[in-house]
Amino acid sequence: MSEHYTLHVNGVDHEVADAWVGENLLYVLRERLGLLAAKGACEQGECGSCSVLLDGRLVCACLVLAAAAVGQPIVTVEGLAAPGAPSDVQRAFVEAGAVQCGFCTPGLVIAAHDLLERNPAPTEIQIREELSGNVCRCTGYGRILAAVQQVAVARREAVSNR
Prior knowledge:
Helix content: 25-40%
Shape: globular
Largest sheet: 5 strands, mixed
Order of helices and strands: EEHEEEHHHH
Number of strands: 5
Strand content: 15-25%
């Protein structure tokens, strides 16, 4: 039995036709909508590579049925900034050398963005805790932590300079 529904992703409505009701959000984002940033690695919600924002909450897209996301705004890394204009978090990851193979980067960027929206001045321990659901096999996390701290400082300075 195939399903037809609409998902609101990155501010745009996307029709999903001929879908199986059991397809997870990660599969639909990647295979049906062509949004390839979220990655499938563990498929069990343990690695964070498929992290997206669903109705303002950080979730592992591999654990969410796509049909259950109907009517809720979904934000992927592709929706954090205009095409060709990286977000401050994305820029900081590049500047700090936190991007290595790139597989985990979209999940880490979306998790860092979520953290900084909720807590504009996180401590190192808070950053570590909030990003602990995202696994990176290439780094020791030092540059990732530095990137998040860099954005936090820059955002605070921007607010104080207004």
